Amino acid sequence: MATPRRRLIAGNWKMNGLAKDGLDLVRAIAERARAEAGTDVLVCPPFTLLAAAAAAAQGSPLLIGAQDCHAKPAGAHTGDFSAEMLADVGAHWVIIGHSERRTDHGETDALVRVKAEAARRAGLGAIICIGETLAERESGRTLQVLSAQLAGSLPSGTTGESTVVAYEPVWAIGTGKTPTVAEVAIAHAHIRRTMGSLSSDANGIRLLYGGSVKASNAAELFSVADVDGALVGGASLIAADFSGIIAAAPAV
Ligand code: PGA
Known about the structure:
Strand order of the largest sheet: 1-2-3-4-5-6-7-8
Helix content: 25-40%
Number of helices: 10
CATH superfamily: Aldolase class I
Bound molecules: 2-phosphoglycolic acid
Largest sheet: 8 strands, parallel, barrel
CATH architecture: Alpha-Beta Barrel
CATH topology: TIM Barrel
Order of helices and strands: EHEHEHEHHEHHEHEHEH
């Protein structure tokens, strides 16, 4: 029988967090993570707080991640950070191909794939984000878009140890709107099926839902088969809200 996938609740702080409040938040979530042995908890603060966040989380089960990396290990890339640099300051994971990076920085599936390869090279787990826009959903192309993004972004040899996939409908991010539970179920089942032709470990790869996850809707989302956790933006910035989402995840 296949090993059950551990739930993962990941917070993406985006471009938020100054030292004092940010580290207080890390400490509060680290405490929460200690009480939740059956669930993996990850926070992804901005680059500026990574090292301090890793230090604040030390000795707790809280995992620390970054929000992006460059594909190369080093070189003339002003303002960028390599996966090796992230690992060097204590990151365990890195989010790759978030829709805000795809939009703001023109990131393509091909770039997402080489960044995911870079994460693996540096020993970091990669959270690869995919998701349709509102126009794509309204024109009935959601599943087709998800298949194409997966095929273009997942490196060969992807396993559940190196990779998590986050399904984030672009129109649900930061908007307070979420797909229905039935729509999430259809998307996740499709992603799981599609991964079957792209990875020999398709059943081991955790699949997160992201986009306006809150403590009030988390339990319903986590009840969907193939939802192995959440990637949380806004609600990860408030300890009580993020804790409520962690509490809604049944331990596996
Ligand atoms: P949100 O963001 O929870 O604020 O909608 C999710 C994300 O962008 O990862």
